[in-house]
Amino acid sequence: MSWILSIEHSSHYRYSLASDGSLNEARMLPQSDRTQFVLERSLVVTPSAHVLGYQDYWGTLAHILEIHQPHRELSIIARSRVQTGTAALPRDPSPPWQHYRDPIFDDTFAEFLDPTALTLVEDSDEVVNALELLLARPNPSEAAQWASDLVHERLTYEAGSTAVSTSASEAWSIRKGVCQDFAHLCIAFLRRLGIPARYVSGYYYPDQEESIGEVIDAESHAWVEAWVGSWLPLDPTNQVFEPERYVVIGRGRDYTDVPPLIGIYRGGGTSMMEVHVRVIRES
User: Fold this and answer.
1) CB-based contacts of 181: which residues, under 8 Å, 6+ apart?
2) How confident is the model at residue 270, as a pLDDT?
3) What global pTM score does this model have?
């Protein structure tokens, strides 16, 4: 099934003292690929900014936003309309476990096999037992799905319980987190199994009533793709992956490769930021 989703992602900064200038990098607009088709997209920055768009190392569309005038507020609004669910989930059998032990395979997928600071999970009796159970699955595809289910069962979703710097080990220990913690922990287990895994950032349509035309308050979302002969999407936060509900913005090793917005400003004082994401299902 294919949907059309309309997304508005707005970020608004307020400075206690006027800023002489600011430099930001945004990853808030989607690109077309086999899983989605972008119908419209725009980025509106106030005050006016010099905007440079480019594809980063991981293939994500990024924008550099330079402002060289005094300002007390900064508004960045990303709007897009996307046809989702344009490709079916992979159904082909995954390669056998021995395929994943080939040194050439390791070289090919090294960046999605090596752990990062956010995707480390320390050994404990629980972790070792979980890894043994996953390795006992008959093929990597089934093991990947089990890893996602394991994380879904282990963690409780609790907004504000963690920060962007929280590691997979910390999330495993406190047994709670938000979507990026679910994704980091799932990636940690997949990489320990020798299965390439990448972090996906984007948007998710959460309304189970599927109300066409209704504005839904949402958030940026994170999920996982595991390589099992092709890239298999997994959402350990929601457990079930329905392609039409997802809009991909970027992919990387972990959150630090695809933050929606990062930046610096010149001037004294403090800053406050408000973020709102609204999603409409058009059809």
Assistant:
1) 155, 162, 166, 168, 171
2) 84
3) 0.95
